[in-house]
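pasting for ref
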Amino acid sequence: MIKPEIIDFAIEERKHDSIQLTLNGTPFKKQPFADIGLYYKWKCPTPCKVCQKHPHSMECFDWGANILWKRYEKNPEEAKDKVTEMCYWNMKEKFDSWFVLGTHSRYLTKWMIVGILWMKKN
């Protein structure tokens, strides 16, 4: 977990159908959040070697943030506004926000945001 200094936030809509495959390569199911990508630019509270040169840029796989998009997806402009308000402006201004980082590689080379925690500021 890390308390980030959030610099920027972007939502990228994806047009392709992304399918999860089984171990033998047969289609299993459509990935639940394949239609959008939520991306943060941020710095560590104490700059690491990467932050000293440029901010981190990571995709966010937080379930709640993606479900917020799904709630409004019939109106993409409203969805973009609601998700940006909650996942960017409120996280920067109204909440103490924390990123839960993880990786899907055993070599720890590609990190991603697997969860977001936010608590109201006192």
